[in-house]
Structures are given as structure tokens and as C-alpha cells.
Amino acid sequence: MIILRRNYLRNTRFLFVGIVSRELFHDIPLSSFVKPFLAGENGIGQRETWCRSLNTLSYLEALASKVRVGNNEHDVLQSLVSDEICCSIHPSSSIVDEMLRRFEHDWKSALGIFRWAVTQYGFKHTPEAYDKMVDILGRAKQLDKMMLFVNEMREGNHVRLNTIAKAMRRLAGAGKWEEAIKIFNDLGTFGLEKNTEAMNLLLDTLCKEKRVEVARDVFLELKPHIPPNDHTFNIFIHGWCNYNRVDEANWTLQEMKGHGCRPCVISYSIIIQAYCNQFNYRKVYELLDEMKAHGCTPNVVTYTTLMCSLAKSDEFEEALQVYEMMKSDNCKPDTLFYNALIHVLKRAGKMREAAHVFEVEMPMNGIIPNTSTYNTMIAMFCHHSQEENALYVLKEMDKSTFCKPDLKTYNPLLKLCLRSGKADSFLNTLLDDMINTHHLSLDLSTYTLLIHELCRADNCERAYIILEEMISKEITPRYITCRLLLDHVKQKNMTDVADRIEDLMKKMKT
Predict the structure, then answer these.
(1) Which run of H or of E encompasses 472?
(2) Membrane-spanning residues where (predicted)?
(3) 34 pLDDT band (50/70/90 cuts)?
């Protein structure tokens, strides 16, 4: 059995150590598959489970390798139905779902795979697979094909309200809002009811595409037949605010009350955010008073929005007063609020207070830091050249079971390392930690930071090595980065390097 399976893997270009797909089995250790074979642990049951899992992975790779992109989905379908290996595969819903995910940006292949699956004996697609296909076609702007597909679904009685929502959003997003309304009007032909939930989906679609006035006209027409609810009015409040028409949002708040719907914390918070965007804090505080007068206590999102807005206006002391207001209302902070609070304290130059929040208050209140929390603390200590404190926070982050460092974690450390004139060994340690320990791939921003800071540190030799590495990974440097490096290598009479950089810059221009 093991020999046959290994041969099959070899024939389908698999490596034994690479069979576990991270997407499908990211939380299952490799040992749970391998050990039963190596040591005979846990009996036959686990061996059969391992084989089934292996079959799924083998089928996925076999199918993916047989997809031949053609002029249309029929070419893809023919490449699969005419293949002997594909004809021997009995697809499952999980296999189809994974294949659609893999080819979600290639609608021809996705639709061809979808059509192929139903040619296999006894297979039927799940409602989720149908909706996924509608979404793929809509995202690819294949709106005519999307509607033909929806009509096919109607014949098979596969259309759900979720299907209609996806179709309406794609049509409205392409500016075809009249067709989105027509689908709603045709709901009965799909066996669906025109009710409040369906109306809200249409109104939300129109509002998100900044067709709030159209949505309003539709609502006025439907209101005598379909009763609105709280969510209906919140959709309009959000729509008017996104359209920067806060007066209409306020008017909607009053209309909401007139229909016997009670504004909730979401209703008020949306308008408060709009006033914060306008830096109109007088109106913000008026709304906060109105909320409390109507027994609607602001929540942590409301306070976080206000505090961040005040900090953006450099009103740090007033921003910190928001925390006191929050305490007086017995509103408990969450991780996002604490992240914002630490950021405000950092910008206000209150390092000791920020450290106290991180080290004392958050653990005391049972709030677990996330990646953003650690990154803010590291950036703060690096900004003030407190290397030891920054590295201490990094070590604490490494111990966390809830988050791991990302590129934003290391960028301030890299900048501090280079600006403080630390030895190359420290830079090498940081890069090794990023790449080999945490398996982070450097992006354009990180490469740019390294090159600029190395030039500032008069180490253009290493900066050029990093530029070459960047290009080898097909990451195109910014023109200004090449210009900076070119100036530095010319100052050091590195003629050959200067010529290569100039050639690169010419190619970038063309």
C-alpha cells in the first residue's frame, strides 16, 4: 500500500514531504499523517484517514495540472472531460470549493471546472459553490454570463437570497443599478419573497455604490408594501454619511423615530464618525448627550472613533479625556481601544504612561495584545532610541501564542539599527530573524527602507547588494531609490555599479 501510494505521488509530481496543503491543513501537524505509517500508531482508522486526506490533495493537484486555459470555459471543460485521470476522479464538495478558490481570478477555468464536476456520476454542487461561481463571474465583469448563470440556477431551483445579493452588488458596482433593481423586482420568479430583508439588501447595495438618492426613491416606493426596520434606517444613515451629507443622516435619525424604530448605538456612532471626519466636535458632544438622554450608552467603538479623531487634530489632552469619559460610563476597553490609547500617548510623548497601559492595565483587564499593540510599542521605543526596551517587547511578542511579528514589527528596528551605527552583525541578526525564524518575505517598503538607510549610513556597497536581491525577486525599486543609490556610488567612484543602476533606470523609464 505504501509503495503504491509513493509511486502514485511520484507519477503526479509530488514530493512526500510537501503533500500537506497549508490552505487545507494548516492547523494539522505533519506528524499526525506520517506517524501512523512509520510507527503503526493509533491503528487502521488513522491510516485510512491519512489515505483519504492524501487522495484529496492528490486529486486537487491532478485536476489543477490538467486545466488548460482556452478561449472560453468550453475549452477548459473539454480538457478535463477528455483526460483519463480526470475521468477517474470522483469530486467532492471540498475539492470543488478548493478548485474554485484556486481559480477565482480566472473565470474561464473556474466555470470549466464547475461544469466538469457535474459530468461526474452522482455529483451535485452545493449552494455555496453556485454562489461562489456567481461571485467569480461578477468580479471578472462578466455580467452577461453571470446573469445567464443565475437564470440557469433558477431552472434548477438553486437561487437563494444570498445569490441575489451577490448579483445585485456586482451589477450596481458596474454602474448597472437599474438592472440590480430589476433583479429585486423579479424575486418572485426565483421563488423568493420581497420582504424587509430583501429590500435592505437592495438598499444597502445602492447606498454602498453612492446611489443613495436612487435608494431613497426605491424606499419611498416600497415603504407602503414592505415595513422598514432599524437596519433599513441605519443603511441610509451610513449611506448619507459616506456621501458626506450628514444633515440628511441626522434627518434619517429623526425619521427612524417617527416609524417607531429606536436609534441604537450603531445609528449614533455612524453620525459621530462623520462629524469627527469634519472635526466638528461640538456636534459630536451634542450627539453623545442625546444618546445618553435616550438611554443609549456609547460603546467602545464610539469612544475609539472620537479619541483617534482628536489625536489626528493634535488635541492630545482632550483625546486622553475620552478615556476618563469611558470609565465614567462603565464602558470596558478592548484591544483596539488600547492600541489607539497607546498610539495617542506615544504621539503625546507620554512614554511612561504608554508602557503602563501595555504592561499593567491591559493584563489587569484581561485584554490580550495583538500584533498592532506590540508594533506600536516597538515603534515608540525605537523612535526614542530605546533599543533594549524595543527588543524586550519583541521577545515578549515571540512568546505570544496569539500573534507573531510581521514586517511592520521589524522596520523600526532596522531603521534604529542603521541610524545608530550598529555593527553589521546586528543588522544580519535582525534580517535572519525575519527571514529564517519568522519566514517573512521582504516587500517593497522594507527593501526601500534598507537601501535608503544604508545610503544614509554611507554603506552603498551593501545597499547595492540589497538592490540586486530585490530585482532578483522581481520587486521593482522606486525610481527615487535608484537615484539616491546612484548618487552615492558615484561619490565613491563605483563606475561599474553606477552604469548598471543607470541601465536599470533607463529601463524603468521605458
Answers:
(1) helix 460-472
(2) none
(3) very low
CA-to-CA distance for 83 and 75, rounded, in angstroms?
A: 12
Average of per-residue pLDDT across 471-480:
92
Averaging pLDDT over each range in 2-16, 85-99, 110-124, 397-411, which range is the top one?
397-411
**Cell 553606477 belongs to residue:** 498
Whole-Å CA distances, 452 to 144, 228, 425, 440: 49, 57, 19, 20
Asked if 85 and 58 touch (Cβ cutoff 8 Å), the reply is no
Amino acid symbol at 38: L
- Say what the pTM is: 0.73
d(CA 163, CA 198): 11
Q: Where are the domains of the chain?
A: 126-227
Taking 50 as the threshold, does the pLDDT of residue 9 lie above it? no
CA-closest candidate to residue 346, choices 372, 316, 321, 367: 316
CATH topology (fold) of 126-227: 1.25.40
Kindly report, residue by residue over 273-293, the tens digit of the pLDDT. Answer: 999 999 999 999 999 999 999
In angstroms, the CA 109 to CA 42 distance is 41
Q: Do the beta carbons of residue 100 and residue 62 sit within 8 Å? A: no
Q: Are 372 and 334 in contact (CB under 8 A)?
A: no
Q: How confident is the model over 201-221, as pLDDT tens digits?
A: 999 999 999 899 999 999 999
> Which amino acid is present at 334?
D
